[in-house]
Design brief:
The structure is a single chain. It contains 7 helices and 2 strands; from the N terminus they run H-H-H-H-H-E-E-H-H. The protein is mainly α and 165 residues long. Strand 1 and strand 2 form a beta hairpin. Helix 1 packs across helix 2. It is elongated. It starts with 11 loop residues before the first helix and ends with a helix.
């Protein structure tokens, strides 16, 4: 191991633990999750792949990539920005400097719009899963990639682009 390759020669599991510890020390809120996501992205492995290959040794190039991701996260750059993608409602969105990171919890302004529209979330649902008509409507029986859910998207987009009377 060297300063440029801090994780080279460690197993994937040891690297995950070391990175999580480093992130926690630097005040990152979700160090275990972030370490797993960053290492998974650097190695092109999903959660299962990381577990199956946990005893595999990290190469020098992989170590450099993980160290680069780690430094960006220590500087509190969001994981989605580091990875260039964000899963949201079962869909994978690619991010650029020009895009906002999708968030699962509506901001107070969204809650206010829902309240003013008279929409209320059903039992066990968040404000973003309201049963209100229009753009805020989600089909609870539809999977994220179902034709029913996709059919709602163009309608919602048209409704959002139309001026309100």
């Amino acid at each position: 191991m060297s300063a440029n390759d801090p994780f080279a020669g460690l197993t994937i599991e040891a690297t995950r633990r070391a990175l999580a510890s480093q992130l926690k020390t630097n005040g990152v809120e979700t160090p275990d999750l972030d370490a797993r996501m960053l290492i998974g992205a650097a190695l092109d492995l999903d959660h299962t792949g990381l577990a199956i290959q946990s005893a595999r040794l990290i190469t020098g190039d992989e170590s450099k990539m993980i160290a680069g991701f780690a430094q960006r996260r220590i500087e509190h750059e969001p994981v989605a920005r580091i990875l260039g993608r964000k899963e949201f409602w079962g869909l994978d969105f690619h991010l650029s400097d020009a895009t906002l990171v999708p968030r699962p919890t509506p901001k107070p302004s969204s809650r206010l719009r829902l309240k003013l529209s008279g929409a209320t979330p059903g039992p066990g649902r968040s404000a973003s899963q309201t049963s209100a008509p229009g753009p805020a409507r989600f089909c609870s029986r539809c999977s994220p990639n179902s034709p029913q859910r996709r059919a709602l998207a163009p309608t919602s987009a048209r409704q959002l682009s139309q001026p309100r009377s």
